[in-house]
Amino acid sequence: MTSEPREGPGTIPVGRRVFLGVVALGAAGVVVGGAIQSGLGRLLGSGLGGLLPGGDHFRIYSLNGVFPTIPNDMYRLEVSGLVDRPTTFTFSDLTAMPSTRLVATFQCVTGWRVPDVAWEGVKLSHLLEVVGAHRDAVAVTFESHDGADTESLTIDQAHLPDVIVAYRMLDAPITTEHGGPVRLYVAPMYGYKSLKWLSAIRVVNAVQPGYWELNGYPVNGWLDGSTGPTNPNPRLT
Ligand SMILES: Nc1nc2c(c(=O)[nH]1)N[C@H]1C(S)=C(S)[C@@H](COP(=O)(O)O)O[C@H]1N2
Ligand SMILES: [Mo]
């Protein structure tokens, strides 16, 4: 048991993790909770989370308890769909591209946040340009090497300058637990948009709600508060 808010079936407490290649932590992935957890989630969601002890660090999430361990030289990112040149990028393809560094507060809808987190990677807009994404496409979807998480952005959101395919976080290579070697970082939106262990990007002709949206989080996860989660599944708060 932990007093930390749970977010999704695969949330596991820091300190109880084991990495053996791809590890499925079935029992550890069970959601604890009901009323107390969701009440705490609301308290944290109100912004008071920063006042509680331990409110200032990353919680490590995996929806299905799988933490894919991917060496840099095995990493592949497939970019396809409505593009002129479908391409599979290696890790060194990505690091050879122009890089962008961003520093911002990382914020989960359950209320925890981490100030001044540094990120580095390639602008998603640059990758879309390299593959020749069609200008009349509507949205971009994302898949994870864990096989569970999916996300999506509108094509306009995907072109924002602070949406990056990140290969550094906290001024270091991205660790396995944080979704390395490559994860998405959507700076202007809540943390659930920053899909870990990014495996595929597809340019498509309709917004396809991802895992979190199908569970009640808004497709537009802007951090500005006014469009925050309106009807989240209590299981996820
Ligand atoms: N593949 C994958 N990506 C994910 C998640 C997840 O469970 N699986 N959780 C999301 C949520 S809700 C948050 S807040 C952040 C947390 O990032 P962290 O695990 O590095 O702390 O990852 C996001 N990306
Ligand atoms: Mo989150």
Task: Give a structural overview.
It is built from five helices and ten strands; from the N terminus they run H-E-E-H-E-E-H-E-E-H-E-E-E-E-H. The protein is α+β, with helices and mostly antiparallel strands. It has a five-stranded mixed sheet with strand order 2-1-10-5-6. A hairpin with a 2-residue loop joins strand 7 (about 165-170) and strand 8. It is globular and about 45 Å long. The model is unreliable at about 1-5, about 10-50 and about 225-235 (pLDDT under 50). The ligand Nc1nc2c(c(=O)[nH]1)N[C@H]1C(S)=C(S)[C@@H](COP(=O)(O)O)O[C@H]1N2 binds near residues 58, 60, 61, 146 and 194.
For the biggest β-sheet, the strand order reads 2-1-10-5-6
Number of spatially distinct domains? 1
Spatial gap, N to C terminus? 16 Å
As residue ranges, the low-confidence spans are 1-5, 12-50, 226-237
Shape: globular
Q: Which CATH class applies here?
A: Alpha Beta
Q: At the third CATH level, what is the topology name?
A: Sulfite Oxidase, Chain A, domain 2
- Rg over CA atoms, rounded to whole Å, is 17 Å
Helix content: 10-25%
Q: pLDDT average, as an integer?
A: 80
CATH superfamily, by name, is Oxidoreductase, molybdopterin-binding domain
Features:
237 residues; alpha+beta; Sulfite Oxidase, Chain A, domain 2; five-stranded antiparallel beta sheet; 5 helices; 10 strands; globular; disordered N terminus; binds ligand MTE; binds molybdenum atom
